[in-house]
Design brief:
With about 725 residues, the chain is of the alpha/beta class. About 60% of the residues lie in helices and about 10% in strands.
């Protein structure tokens, strides 16, 4: 196959895997389920884009790399100091759940094959089939389990026990499989002693662990000589892959070796986790390829071929894993959450089980049984890989060990996109009670601050902001309602007065009277004429409520381009409060443009203001110090009596830095970029991105003449 086609295949796998993962997340499913479903759609059971015929084994090296990284990552979770009291639980649960799966699957398959099979079949053939399937059933899929654990950020006794059991389980699976193979050889006529099988299994386990310890020590030694993350990633990945290929050539287990390497590093006195963190950044695309390829290799036809034996294999394995875990936890005195839920998390089965099937296939004496074993195990893998990650996800959630997602306390029980929609909708928009003394209007107002209200949910908020600005400018707030020209003359005086009741009540509560005006025109023209006619000192507008506030951008651009006073565009999200303000900026001149707004808020109340100065990611320490010194001097000249803080950050992502800072603040204030159409499409606008993504109210300040900083936003 030409290299271009392999590259195209990688692109298709990555794109489809990510797309299905996002769809799975919308349904609150683990990402790995989406990866596998994407593979099923692309594989022979779906569109047939990725098959052994079209792609062959050209992408197998990604699978090998992923398996080594997965094994190494599991080792990180087996820290003896943290295991503490659960070490006893791990021992009991690991052994009993493995034996439970082996015994129940073997008994179920033996009974089914005897009842449903050919009556003329020799009895020992039923026993060989049952032995081999029982041994394969012991293995689990550490990759899927680790991925779900990392995605949920799970921490706690159940998670620690789960990761340790998964690591030990593969060692037990190798021992049981070796003994089963030896017994099967004896049953078919080749005398291979049980002692020989046990010694062969122990050889594989012990020397795999030795290779892992040696690799871990070598990596730890090299890491202490390196300080750059890129160098650590390169050296660590080289040593891990060398370990994996060496163990494979020696007939050992790369999974056990990789786990032991991670185990060795995490339990060293130095506990250097830098390589784990560097690999975490490298892993995502490899993981997507691994799981999507795994899904592409699953053939749903195996479900039909497996028949009753396949169903019994799948059900008996789950019962054996769950029952063995419950019994092991009971005997060891494990807490109820471990006894009741851990067994469900051991359902996933994939790579190790398929590897054991390949070993059976390559054995000349046992190859005759592969026509039954292969579809049965593959059917079990298909079902367990689809259901297993869901059960792991459920287990960790029920145990209460998942990392809390960014849930806003205002949303109550709503989470994710449901919370997002509620916060941005009319029901979620609220106005915090005014915590300070009422304001005193000027005896001789000099002008007005105009605001345009079009929704009852935002009218009070706009009135409060306009009143605060009016207090700063020694002016009065004025509410302007823009109605279509066709409505002229249709409204009575009572109806006209009722239009302004919410904002009038809010302004009066702050101590100010409210001026009102109704204009029959288009929104942009009407607002511009109101500002010009009344010689307004500022104008305040609110983004429409809903998911797409940027549809209002044309109106904002037209008004901002045709007025000679500052324009403040407010994006309402949840509760509008003024206690903790975040002011992100890219250029010091932007702070000068926002100063009137900040002074107005500081005069009306006593907010805490945090300035977030975002420099480019590669800035030097000297540039950081210079920026800090500039802001210190600026604050000494302005906002002297206000509680302020300044953070200077070398931002890898400006948007993410602002969104992260917004979590601990009530309100975001920033300047707008004066880019139009094509320039905005190509270069973007930071303020617009914040408005679209932030879960806090946002003030976007447009100044009459904006040069320089507007082109950076």
């Amino acid at each position: 196959m030409p290299m271009q086609e392999v590259t195209f295949g990688i692109a298709i796998l990555l794109a489809a895997g990510l797309l299905f993962a996002k769809l799975a997340q919308l349904l609150r499913l683990p990402s790995v389920t989406g990866f596998i479903l994407a593979g099923l759609v692309l594989g022979p059971s779906g569109l047939g884009v990725i098959t052994m015929a079209t792609m062959g084994h050209r992408l197998d090296h990604f699978t090998q790399i992923a398996l080594m990284l997965i094994a190494f990552g599991i080792g990180e979770h087996i820290e003896l100091r943290r295991l503490g009291d659960v070490a006893r639980d791990v021992g009991y649960i690991s052994v009993i759940q493995a034996l439970g799966a082996f015994v129940l699957v073997m008994a179920g398959v033996l009974l089914a094959s005897w009842l449903l099979g050919d009556p003329e079949t020799v009895p020992h053939e039923h026993l060989v089939l049952a032995l081999l399937l029982g041994a394969v059933a012991v293995a689990t899929a550490p990759a899927a389990i680790l991925h779900v654990v990392r995605e949920l950020g799970a921490r706690g006794p159940l998670t620690a026990t789960l990761m340790a059991v998964v690591a030990v389980d593969d060692g037990i699976a190798i021992v049981i499989f070796g003994m089963a193979m030896s017994t099967a050889h004896q049953l078919v006529g080749q005398e291979v002693g049980l002692a020989h099988a046990v010694l062969a299994s122990l050889y594989e386990i012990v020397f795999s662990l030795v290779m892992g310890v040696a690799t871990g020590l070598l990596i730890d030694l090299v890491l202490h000589k390196l300080h750059r993350r890129g160098e650590m990633l390169t050296a660590g990945l080289a040593l891990l892959l060398l370990c994996g290929e060496s163990t494979r050539m020696l007939g050992l287990s790369p999974l056990l070796a990789g786990m032991m390497a991670g185990f060795t590093i995490i339990n060293r006195a130095e506990r250097d986790v830098r390589l784990f963190r560097a690999l975490n950044a490298f892993e995502p695309p490899i993981y997507v390829l691994f799981f999507t390829l795994a899904g592409a290799h699953l053939d749903l036809a195996a479900l039909r071929l497996a028949g009753w034996i396949g169903l019994i294999y799948f059900v008996a394995r789950i019962i054996g894993k769950y029952g063995g875990t419950w019994l092991g936890g009971l005997l060891s005195g494990a807490p109820p959450v471990v006894r009741n839920y851990l067994g469900l998390a051991l359902v996933p089965q994939a790579g190790v089980a398929i590897g054991l099937v390949f070993m059976i296939t390559s054995d000349a004496l046992l190859a005759g049984w592969t026509t039954i074993i292969t579809p049965v195990v593959l059917a079990g893998v298909v079902l367990s890989e689809l259901a297993g990650p869901l059960l792991v996800h459920l287990t960790l959630e029920r145990a209460g060990e998942t990392e809390e997602r960014a849930a806003d306390p205002e949303c109550g029980k709503l989470r994710g996109r449901a919370c997002e929609r509620w916060l941005r909708g009319p029901d979620g928009v609220r106005l915090a009670p005014w915590p300070w003394e009422p304001l005193h209007p000027p005896a001789n107002p000099e002008s007005v601050v105009v605001f345009g209200a079009c929704h009852s949910a935002t009218a009070r908020g706009l009135a409060r902001i306009a009143t605060i600005l009016a207090h700063h400018y020694h002016a009065l707030p004025m509410s302007v309602r823009i109605l279509p020209r066709s409505e002229r003359g249709r409204m009575s005086e009572e109806e006209r007065v009722s239009l302004f009741l919410p904002e009038e009540d809010e302004a009066r509560g702050l101590g100010y009277p409210l001026l009102t005006e109704v204009i029959y025109d288009s929104p942009a023209s009407g607002l511009v004429s109101a500002v010009e006619y009344n010689d307004a000192r500022a104008v305040v507008l609110g983004y429409p409520l809903g998911r797409n506030p940027l549809a209002f951008q044309k109106v904002l651009d037209r008004v901002a381009a045709n007025v000679l006073c500052p324009l403040v565009a407010v994006r309402f999200v949840g509760t509008l409060a003024f206690d903790r303000l975040l002011v992100p900026f890219l250029d010091p001149r932007e702070v000068d443009e926002m100063l009137p707004m900040l002074e107005a808020l500081a005069t009306a109340g006593q907010p805490e203001i945090t300035f977030l100065y975002l420099l480019h990611a590669d800035c030097s320490r000297g540039e950081l110090r210079t920026a800090e010194e500039y802001m210190r001097e600026w604050l000494e000249l302005h906002l002297v009596d206000v509680k302020t803080d300044c953070r200077v950050e070398a931002a890898e992502s400006r948007l993410e830095s602002i969104l992260e800072g917004a979590k601990s603040h009530d309100l975001i204030i920033m300047t707008a970029a004066r880019r139009r159409r094509f320039k905005r499409l190509i270069f973007g606008a930071l303020a617009n991105s914040v408005v679209h993504n932030c879960r806090r109210p946002v003030f976007v300040v447009y100044t009459p003449q904006q040069v320089g900083p507007g082109e950076t936003g």
